[in-house]
Sequence to fold (539 residues):
Amino acid sequence: MAAAITLVSVGAPRGDEFDRMYHEFRNYDSRSLSELGGRCIERQHTDSAMAIFTILANRCDGSSVSDDDRKYAVEARLSLGVLNFLQANYASAYSNFLAASRLEGRYDSPGNLNLAAIFLYYGDRPKAYRCLRRVFDASIRSGNGYMASAALINLLTSDFDSTIMPPDTIRSIISDYKKNVPRSPGDKAWPLAHCYSEAKLFSLDKEHEKAITMLRASLDSAQRLLMPQREYFASYIALGNKYRDVGNPDSAEFFLRKAESIAKENAYPELLISVYSDLSRLYQSTGQNDLAAKYRFKHLELHDSVFSAREYGNIHDLELFDETTKFEQRIKRIQIEEKMRSRVIMVIACALLLLAIMTTILFVQNRKLRLKNKSLFDRNLEIMTSDTIEVSQPEKPSATSGPSGDIRSHISECIRKAMTDESVFCMEGFSMRELTEICGSNQKYVSQVLNEDYGKTFTQLLNERRINVARRRLLDFEQYGHLTIEAIVTGLGFKSRSTFSKTFKRMTGLTPSEFQHMAQENIAKGTSSRESDPNHEGD
Fold:
């Protein structure tokens, strides 16, 4: 995993110094902060760089952050991660790489690729493989060719054994890459990924000379990358081990020594551990036991040294991680203090506005409903001023056969008498058949007279008469005021309370409860008017 930032020492301001820097830089836009942080690193002012990148990284705590701020926050997290990784502050490096990947919200991100480097360094190869594989698969799906190439290079050079990445899996991964990632000018990692892919396939097919040819070609491809030294190292190691496998120890030693030089010159202790182990195996295979023992000792000595450094680094990680956490907590505290008043005021204002709107709506709706009910109630009172049954049309014989003369008059009079007698039309089960018997005629003639003289069907006239009785009872509080509506309408001939309620609503526009309530208000209003009248002396 090649690093992409200059090695610098890492420090951090504390307490009041951080507060001063925060207040000084908080109003800078994200681009200016990013540039300022880069200049601080170039000048070795890493304490200021840490504070600036922390401020920049924490601009993405909210969900409403702009895309530009999110982009710069990702860059800040990656910069913090790389700085910590190069100084063996792996806990902080891990934390920042993880935060960067979460901010980007996708697997094909540099943050996830860098997380794999930490897993590899700690020797957790299964986790490193899973991480790289997620990056690779996501890059293939999204069409991110550069990230797919970078992930493939790391998959093929991380020395995963066959239990983690068996040959069939290797072939499948390379096949997916070839199908989905064409060569493009913007993907500078593609030539190196291509060389490693071909070399690996030739090795699996036991075509070692062809594999060696492709590994040699990888040296030219590595030269085109921004940080080629680690890729040179990986190619030299692969060539050395391949020459050892084909029985050419001189060439194997040559390339392993080249790898050793790169690790020493660039101070890569973890890479030196790897090359010392490979040199020990090479000399063991050629019978040079003294050299094999020498490099085995170097391997163990450096391994123990690095292991101790890791333990020290872990302690330092905890301290630095604690300081970073304090920085972030300070930022959050200051931001909360600055935003709390405006947010509280905004919430209260919105709540009051919403309450006012809801109250106004309810008031207007209630007023409209009351006016509507009052109008309907008044209309019902007008209808009730006359309890007579009116003939809607002058009596005249129908064009079709039917009753005429005295018979027609007799039927009409019988209908009027029946429909003005509550004991008759309020009788339960009263029907057209009973009315026909009262009229002493047949159903056809009675129905014809109803339609032509009264302009109604039997059911319409019957419901009209029964509802009129119900209205009178609901208005008569002296006699019926102590009864429930169900008791009041008992004996009106309706089959059920629900049938009565539906019929009452359809004919009056009000429910029985609404009608009774309006009647109470009407009485109360009349009483109040009489009491306020100075000429009213009482009963």
Summary: Residues 37 and 400 are 104 Å apart (CA to CA). Residues 289-384 form the longest helix (96 residues). The chain has a mean pLDDT of 80. The radius of gyration is 48 Å.
